[in-house]
Write a structure and sequence with these properties.
mainly alpha
Amino acid sequence: MAIYPDKKDGKLNGRFRVELQKGKQRYRKRWDTFTEAQKDEQAVLASWAAGEAPPAPGAAPGAPEVHTFASVIPLARGKLWTGQSTEETSWARLETMATILGRNTRLDDVDTQAVDRVIAALQKAGKEDGTINRYLSHLRTFLVWAKSRKYRTVPIKDEIEFAWRKETAGRIRWITPAEEAGLQAYLTSRTDPRGREQASAVWKLILVAIRTGCRRDELLTAEESQINGTRLHLWETKTDTPRTVPMTQETTDVLLDLIRSGTMPNQRSLRSWWDRAKAALGLEHDDEFVFHVTRHTCATRLVDAGVNVFVIKEWMGHKRIETTLRYAHVKPQNLEDALRKVGDMLSVTDENSQVSAIFSLPHALPTAGGMGDFSNEPRMAA
């Protein structure tokens, strides 16, 4: 018999492993039950005895129904990434990976080596590390979805190692004050009545985006019911984490006007007027100058204003603090400002003996009376 109790980290996990070999042919497969493993072993041995190739893992008699990329992708359509601004991009990437691995590949056969083939193919196609990570993330999301619905029977965590690529921080593109003034001048100076209304609405949207840091679709789909006073409540976000964004009264009025007047641009109008304004500023060859730079602009201005990085994280709705920290290094001037602030603090301590004495005290753990009495003994009266 070639069926063994399966282990992970030296401990039995309740599953069973089939391991067979005939000459140079080797066959390995894990099953949830001993019965499934036994049927698999019998099927493989029967195939070899008949001079046939062994059945593919997952295709043994009595095994769960075999599912492939070709059969499961249509089932996942309309359920995965639905309503997200990146929905079509996500599906395009998954289709690309299905083509790389073979659309008739069984989902149970997707393992670490399959992931390595995807990475190699994407690298050959010239994809950057950050983009490759996005592809792998979509593949993992799809496989997790399939596993939860039994279209894949093999655990993902135990069978697949996703070799995430190390991403470089890269350059963060933001809008300079001069570029902001240029956008305003172009979009608010149109003379054609219809074009003037559309361009003016796009400028208002840009202004709100810069001041709030909201993503494009968060603003394009905003409703009046989401605004409470001068706060915009976002229930559906890219990171699936609701957040509330503060606004000035002026920004609130501009956003309310776009919503109430029905002049909120759609994606097509926004893209069209953005590209025209971009060309007018001589930035038509700057691939990084897209509408999303309004969000980067908000974050960098919060950093420049000295706002605590954890506050910025909550404001921007970042899932990981590492994302926020990218903005803390965008300008060398930030380092110089920090040096100046330290110098100012030292000047104060030198000039004020009381403050100086406080800073000269050694750091110590709290004692009785500092943060409560940690002793069971009665306190002595002074």
